[in-house]
Specification:
This protein has eleven helices and twelve strands. It is an alpha/beta fold. The chain has a domain of about 220 residues: Aldolase class I (TIM Barrel, Alpha-Beta Barrel). It is globular, with a radius of gyration of 20 Å. Bound molecules: ligand PBG and zinc ion. Ligand PBG binds next to helix 6.
């Protein structure tokens, strides 16, 4: 059967029909908002390359968390910027550091949010690399106990999810074992399994003050050319005990999201990163695209590809847009 019997336009004729047959539905509970936390009080320092986003002190984080909770957002993920950095990144496991304190504050201020903590050392090391250095390279096995110690500090503060973003081999197993030994068998691990060495992280590195002092991250983050390798990383992380897996960035890697969603049975997370946001904001500021429509369309593409959960800087705003539009 074909035209004129078949007319696909029938199912697009009214808003009511379109809404009924939509294959993908965004929901605020599936959005996680990234938050940059600093020390001090009443700090709200704008991030130049990320319009609408700030480095926040813990009291300000509590206010933002309340706003996110009221909007129906599912969770927040914290990145810490310590007062002092050192070779080992020891601020990462300081129980009085910005991330543990933010976790505690949000548990009280917005208990309906899922509390995520990013686990990496690059914000805490003086050289900006994701682990201790051995010569010019990141020492994989040396990083594992440090990352594990950081994960325990966040779990102890009340994190529901710890999310290692370092891309060291074996970190999921190391963190799982250490958490269990420390009495945190129920803390969820979301592994940044397929994290690409991407130029889209530029604005984030301004925000987190984590640009490497020399070199880059290509010896541990994935080569943008590779998709099958992402499946291998996901398989290894699930074998090591990951409860959820992530693909990052999202928009330029929709094929990877699709492939991972077809091969794994754990929740799949995608990270719409800072550069993806910055490009939308810059085009919108020039009047070249309709900002709100592009935000929703970009998130719809990520969900349609197979992501269950999306980390996005638009979380609070998008929550309002998808509730209104549904
Ligand atoms: C740190 C980390 C990065 C991002 C999340 N965790 C940056 C990097 O690897 O350099 C990027 C997030 C974004 O761009 O929004 N390991
Ligand atoms: Zn890092």
């Amino acid at each position: 059967m074909t035209f004129p019997i078949v007319r696909p336009r029938r199912l697009r004729a009214t808003r009511a029909i379109r809404r009924m047959v939509a294959e993908t539905r965004l929901h605020p509970s599936r959005f996680v908002l990234p938050v940059f936390v600093v020390g001090g009080e009443a700090v709200r320092k704008p991030i130049r390359s990320m319009p609408g986003h700030y480095q926040l002190s813990v009291d300000q984080v509590a206010l933002l968390a309340k706003e996110a909770e009221s909007a129906g957002v599912g969770g927040v993920i914290f990145f810490g910027i310590p007062d002092e950095k050192d070779e080992m990144g020891s601020g990462a496991w300081d129980p009085a550091g910005p991330v543990p304190r933010a976790i505690e504050a949000v548990a009280t201020a917005a208990p309906g949010l899922v509390r995520w903590a990013d686990v990496c050392l690059c914000e805490y090391t003086s050289h900006g690399h994701c682990g201790p250095l051995s010569g010019d390279v990141v020492d994989n096995d040396g990083a594992l106990p440090l990352l594990s110690q950081a994960a325990v500090a966040y779990a102890r503060a009340g994190a529901d999810v710890v999310a290692p973003s370092d891309m060291m081999d074996g970190r999921v197993l190391a963190i799982r074992t250490t958490l269990d030994e420390a009495g945190h068998p129920d803390t969820v691990i979301c592994s940044y399994s397929a994290k690409y060495a991407s130029a889209y992280y530029g604005p984030f590195r301004d925000a987190a003050e984590s640009t490497p002092a020399f070199g880059d991250r290509r010896s541990h983050q994935m080569d943008p050319s590779n998709a099958r390798e992402a499946l291998r990383e996901v398989r290894l992380d699930i074998d090591e005990g990951a409860d959820m897996v992530m693909v990052k960035p999202a928009g330029p890697y929709l094929d990877v999201i699709k492939a991972v969603s077809q091969m794994s049975d754990v929740p799949l997370v995608a990270y719409q990163v800072s550069g993806e946001m910055a490009m939308i904001e810059a085009a919108a500021a020039n009047g070249w695209v309709d900002r709100e429509k592009v935000i929703v369309e970009s998130l719809t593409g990520i969900a349609r590809a197979g992501a269950d959960i999306t980390l996005t800087y638009f979380a609070v705003e998008a929550a309002g847009l998808v509730e209104a539009g549904s």
